[in-house]
Sequence to fold (137 residues):
Amino acid sequence: MWKVMKFMNVANAILCCGAVVERLNGESLTGNNTDTYVIAMYVFAFATLLFCYETVGLFDFVAYLLADNFGFLYTVTGRLGFMLMTNVIIISLGTIFAYCVAGIGITNAFYNAGVMMYYPDWTRKMMEDQTAAANGK
Fold:
């Protein structure tokens, strides 16, 4: 189950970035659309954070930043809140693809919460392993 969750999170992060690119494609650089750029920047940053969190085994240098600054991703309520917030923001992009990505992401958020509650020992071990990697142990 947790491997499926990790795959879904990486796929969700990639789809979020795709929704941003799709929204900004053809967007005029000189216009009154600052809000679109701000929303796109936030969605891209949150998607990158989720991607780095799930691939921390590939990018060990990110482990310290994640463990030190984003510890809420290791708790059920923190991750659920983060993923729900990110996917509600995606709805603001206002495209059909963004709505689909948000629906998939919200479903994924609740799946994450279910897996984390069903496997609390695995969740705790993930936090300890990434914290140890961040501290160089």
User: Anything to note?
Assistant: DSSP finds six helices and no strands in the chain. The first helix runs from residue 2 to 24.
